[in-house]
Amino acid sequence: MKQIQRKLISIAVAGTCGALALPLPAYAQQTQPEAQPAAADEMKTVTVSGSRISTRGFTQPTPTTTLSADDLAKSAEPNVFNTLVELPALQGGTGRTTFTYSTSSGVQGLSSLSLRGLGPIRTLTLLDGQRVIGANVTGVTDISQFPQLLIKRVDVVTGGASASYGSDAIGGVVNFITDKKFVGFKSNLEGGQTTYSDDKNATLQAAWGRAFLEERLHIVASGEYGREKGIDSAGFGEIGVGGRDWFTNPDLQTRSLAETTDGKPQIRFVHRSQPYQYARYGLITNGPLQGTAFGADGVPYPYFYGSNGVPTGTGGVTNCINPACVGGDRSGTIQGGSNLAMDLTRKVGYMRAGFNINNDHELYATVNLAKVTSAFSPVPGAIKNANLTIQCDNPYLPASIVAGCAANNITNFQYGTGNGQFPRNINVHPERTQQRLVIGANGKFPLFGVDWSYDTYAEYGRNQTDIAVRDLSLNAHYNAAIDAIRAPDGTIICRNPVAVASGCKPMSIFGNVAPSAEALNYVLPPAGAFQHSVQRQNVVSANMSGELFSNWAGPLSLATGAEYRRESYRVTGDPYGAGVTSETPNTATYPADPLLNAQIGNNWFSGNYHNANGAYNVKEAYVELNVPVLKSATWGEGNINLADRRTKYSTSGMVGSWKLGGTWTGLDGWRVRAVTSRDVRAPNLSELFAAPVVINGTNLYQGNTLTVQQRTIGNTKLRPEIARNSILGVVLNQPSWAPGFSASVDYFDIKINGVISTLSSQQLVDLCVAGNQEICSTMLLNSPVPNTNYVTLQAFNLASQYVKGYDVEMAYRSNLTALNLPGKLTLRALATHTISFLVDSGVVGTVPTENAGANRGSTPNWKVMASQSWDTDSGSLTLSERWISSGVVSNEFIECRTNCPVSTNNHQTIDNNHMAGAFYIDFGGSLKVSKKMTAYFKVNNVANISPPAAPGIPLGANPALYDLIGREYRVGVRYNY
User: Fold this and answer.
1) What is the residue-wise DSSP string for 207-261?
2) What is the pTM of this model?
3) CATH class of residue range 2-231+342-377+429-469+533-561
4) What CA–CA distances, in Å, run from 50 to 58, 162, 509, 554?
5) Which of 464, 594, 662, 672 would you label with 18, given CA atoms 20 to 30 Å apart?
6) What are the extents of the domains in the chain?
7) Quick one: pLDDT band at residue 28, thresholds 50, 70, 90?
């Protein structure tokens, strides 16, 4: 194998050097959807996104699903991302309905695609076969920044493609192909809203194209504006937004392992969970006054606990399982308080200019400018879970509480609050701005008596991400403001004189009492938390493909190329979050304050962004061959496809990826395909150069509890993840006995080793104790100097993942003349059945977890999409269905109600492990109003199906799988001239 690889690389380098020596190197890409083969006169040159080969008659072995521009138009979505995420193979992406509970995940408002549930970082997203600058520090591409009206089709390659396209293609490739030769003018105007009169949206798109200079110069341009206003936070309480009634605050009440010897389940799946460590406007959580809550005007009242609970005076509540009861006063519930959907605005401009030097060579340049902004509220209030100490001499306390303190001989008590008196929820505002410029050339040239295609380009990409978090409290200011005393002159001031000198204004947190404007400005500084990051990507790439020679079975074809890429980023946080360094000057916006930690930062309630920077470069070359081996009227046709790529990363050195596959086409439309590949994902900028964060914590080591510094940093020693990806499939393509019918079934098997993962400090200590010397070198646990022990929290190549299953795709097309009806009927169905998705964390004492069918995640056992479309010259009607199979809360849970076994850390018992599936029906249609204008409509989730309860996750439902928005209506008009 090594000798073969060396020979392949030598061919690749020689071919690439030859391409670079030509005046205009690059390769022409014209992809034909695999399920829709072209007529014989159209099969001269074909390239599909699963391969770099561009030659006659090649049938590539890697399955590819294609969505045409017509498919995208029928979906009538304001963002093409919303259409793609419904494809069964795409699981686990991020969009405006995911991570709405997070201030600092880095993916807020990011529309990214994920194949096989492996995550966006393992799915390579391309635009016209070219890489696109990432929209966050993990390098993930934002689909919202693409020029969507000019998309001619989308190829979804559902197999490993690292040998053809490079790093990140472990799960596969999603390639957006634009219409580079569009001529004319077209536009789209669309608007819609939900049945609850929210998430109102509007989209305006226009594109223009024209040829000049006797059709030697071709210019295409487009502009797009889209606004999806989102669904606001419901705020506190068990309240559905806009009349939605499905939120029940589901939760998992968990007893300790020691209590599970009674034959009852350790975990109860409950609804209407009631946390008892805080109330909306405040609750005393310990001591003789425990159970006293505060309401309107600060008036105290006995808190109504669920589960017939009674406070114990020591922090617990009888009949309740820490930290929650069931039922009772749920007005302070926050789980349903995140936005159901973010407010998202897209502004995209795109232009391509291509100049034909002659019929064989084109010079081109593309410019893509985009700005995507979003806004959302991750949580109402700012929860303090029984972690506040209130002094009994606080002048804001009602007289009855002061008297209670005296009667019980206490000077302080523990307190929890949702800070419901804050006038506004925390709100997050990410803004991503992309600048992308590509210059290149493509065409063909004669070599060995045949024409060879080439494509070479250079790309500059810049993405700037600014995240502002407003109405966010500073912890030290909050603590100082709520600790008030009465001054000698009778006024109320902050107790800490240092705080007073630096501008502290007192604030009451006892009941629904509006704070003063001065107190709010002190506790919630208007500037808020802020992060500014800039990423840059520079690429130089050259590719060529053609036929070396022909044998008795057909042409032996080759694609080869080389690429250089540099990725870099720099992140700057505000001084209060990041700490004051040379990169975060303490400006007037964030003045120095003696109460704040100026060196470490971490002063905000959340969203503490830190500074970081880093860069790496990649040099790679590849070769791909298609070798015909069989052509017989009796035995059919067969070919072998193989590829090899060598990649050198400046951080981790050389790594290789390869692909070996083949197809056999038999009689009457039958085809068998198989491919196996070695695929890689290199560590991204964030994993390599994560910003350092230091907090104090404790760890158990050799029987002792140690106070340690927990230092979170990147790891420049990370190695690429290595995957083995295998696919075996059979295709039936329009047999004589079923004209118009095609179907395919493909089994996939993906094993990833050295998965980059981050563990807790205790898990790292345990791995060191177990003998992992690489991890031991990142910590100090026996220092004789006080307060100098530390544990370094960084990513390691520890975990592994193994996913297997199969894809099914079927299509049938027929005209309706036999029924005496106009037009044609198209039936299509796609399904993915994930048999297993095992994840091994690499942590000592744990077992691999099975994620397939665990419906709190992103990988159901079955995900199906089907459609039935009737198209005529005057319009169309489309009915479509989406199905998610039922599943479980966790495959590691053991469901039982009586006679339960004793729970273990790896296998806990639960009374109800079921999560329902969902079946959605969508309906749409179009009407040709005139020769140039078409009106259309679309109704999503016609039956307004509600999501099933998902315990233990924000919103009490899973937006990664289910529709949380409800029935949606859209209407629009398209103009094409």
Assistant:
1) EEEEEETTTTEEEEEEEEEEEE--B----SSS--GGG-------EEEE--GGGGG
2) 0.91
3) mainly beta
4) 12, 10, 60, 21
5) 662
6) 2-231+342-377+429-469+533-561
7) very low
